[in-house]
Design a protein that fits this description.
Helix content: over 70%
Radius of gyration: 22 Å
Shape: globular
CATH architecture: Up-down Bundle
Number of helices: 22
CATH superfamily: Sodium/glucose cotransporter
CATH topology: Sodium/glucose cotransporter
Distance between the termini: 58 Å
Number of domains: 1
Largest sheet: none
Structural class: mainly alpha
CATH class: Mainly Alpha
Length: 496
């Protein structure tokens, strides 16, 4: 599918990439220390920090994975989107203030730094590092896969490379990510995220408006879907293609799970002044809502157009967005949509390259008592290893972009959310309980995800019902970390 490979679309997409690379090159001139690399020198203001958080959170998961998941699940896919109504406030209220204050007093650059400061226990810190590295590779794999799919549509490589098309485009996309991500670190990320955030919001509004208008408006879209037996009322029912148990699992995972996302939590370390937190939820939530319009509008416009015979069904679920752009979007809008998708993918990938690199070259050596002298140089080299691991995982997994992203999000959530949201506020959470909660979350998230894709998936009732494996892992991790609070004073041991 090379319908996007027109001069106009390629020019807009190319200009977007050149802008990103240019900002990365400019940022390297301002990156002189590990503080610049890891937390942007702690000089970011409200708008830069909030848009950086939004850009890091909404990636190829939204622009390609969202419409693809909507094509597969219908209205039930929105249980992933609905938590945005509460997560910006929850993130700021539970973690924003204590983490910003801590970063102002201590040398805190990463989430494992927080864990090490709170518990001063090597096994707990090492498990937090493991969660960060595994989750970073998983989320990077989501971006690499999304870049591969987008590259195929832009370059038309499927026609002349056949089965080698996707790995080739994934490789080209990964090189582009590494080219600027290894230069300026988080400082480059903040600068580019500010620009890319506006591009993503503009894309969300324009694409959503065009998609809904082109499909005849909400009422016409609904009637078209209801009239087609391939979709029908089940497609539009909030629980139709998931069921109540699975829907509750997705909502639980994507609401409380946000408290364990290091690429979002990390942004609080960069904030220049604590007073900016007052307006942080409004800016973050508002910007996220505008971008998520793409998921909703295109996700329902495609089945409506297919039901009326105006579009052919996408060959793959993840092709839904690309198929809609090829169906009738003007070239300038298709170019803007591609630029918005690239902005989302590149900004998120850059965040994970830096979060993962920090875990490998800063947190791990310090936890083992062997700190690295030149963290800045080693951090740049570490991004290549993370990128290679992500490429390999994306090629092996080759699932829906949204499902690969759900696994990575869930791994972070199960391993880190209970540790940060409860452990930072309750002295009863000793190293023993913190280590147990993190280990429980990581092990269950990985094992249950493997079971989901195996012939034995039905042995776990929740997975058989469609509950995301990570939601089960997150619930189990919360049960462990809350145990000393519930058991009472007899279990209390102040780890500090």
């Amino acid at each position: 599918m090379n319908c996007l490979g027109t001069p106009v679309v390629l020019a807009i997409a190319g200009a977007s990439l050149l802008l990103v690379l240019g900002v990365g090159l400019l940022a390297v001139l301002r990156t002189a220390s590990a503080r610049d690399w890891f937390i942007a020198g702690q000089r970011a203001g409200l708008l830069a920090t909030a848009l950086a958080t939004m850009s890091a959170a909404l990636s190829g998961f939204v622009f390609l994975g969202g419409p693809g998941l909507a094509w597969k699940l219908g209205a039930a896919s929105l249980w992933i989107v609905l938590p945005v109504g509460i997560t910006p406030w929850l993130l700021t209220r539970v973690l924003g203030r204590p983490l910003r204050d801590l970063a102002g007093r201590e040398e805190i650059f990463t989430v494992p730094d927080v864990v090490a400061w709170r518990w001063r226990h090597r096994p707990t810190t090492l498990l937090a590092i493991l969660a960060v590295v595994l989750g970073s590779v998983g989320y990077l794999a989501t971006q690499v896969l999304a870049l591969g799919l987008l590259g195929e549509a832009l370059l038309g490589t499927r026609e002349w490379l056949g089965d080698g098309s996707l790995p080739f485009c994934m490789s080209v996309g990964l090189v582009a990510v590494l080219a600027y991500g290894t230069l300026g670190g988080m400082l480059a990320g903040v600068w580019t995220d500010l620009v890319q955030g506006f591009v993503m919001m503009l894309t969300g509004v324009l694409v959503a408006g065009w998609a809904v208008a082109g499909a005849g408006g909400p009422a016409t879209m609904a009637r078209s879907i209801l009239a087609d037996e391939r979709f029908g009322a089940t497609f539009l029912h909030p629980l139709g293609r998931l069921g109540p148990t699975a829907a509750a699992g997705f909502f639980f995972l994507f609401s409380l799970g946000v408290l364990g996302q290091p690429h979002m939590v990390h942004k609080f370390f960069m904030l220049r002044e604590r007073r900016h937190l007052r307006w942080f939820p409004l800016v973050l939530g508002g910007s996220q809502s505008l971008v998520l319009l793409v998921w909703i509008a295109v996700g329902f416009a495609v089945p409506a157009l297919v039901a009326r015979g105006e579009m052919s069904p996408p060959a793959r679920c993840d092709d839904a967005m690309i198929a809609w752009l090829c169906h009738g979007a003007p070239e300038w809008l298709a170019g803007l949509a591609v630029a918005g998708a690239l902005a989302a993918i590149m900004s998120t990938a850059d965040s994970f390259l830096n979060v993962g690199a920090a875990a490998l070259v800063r947190d791990l050596p310090r936890a083992l008592g062997r700190p690295v002298e030149d963290e800045l140089s080693w951090g740049r080299w570490a991004t290549f290893f993370l990128g290679a691991g992500a490429w390999l995982l994306a090629w092996i997994h080759q699932d829906l972009v949204a499902l690969v992203g759900t696994f990575a999000f869930g791994l972070f959530a199960a391993g880190l959310a209970p540790l940060l949201s409860v452990g930072l506020h309750r002295k009863e959470i000793t190293p023993r309980w913190a280590t147990g909660a993190t280990a429980t979350g990581i092990v269950l998230a990985v094992v249950l995800e493997w079971l989901r894709k195996s012939p034995w998936r039905d042995i776990v009732p929740g997975i058989a019902a469609g509950v995301p494996p990570a939601a089960i892992a997150l619930a189990a991790s919360f049960l462990v970390v809350l145990a000393p609070v519930v058991l009472g004073p007899g279990q209390r041991r102040d780890s500090r």
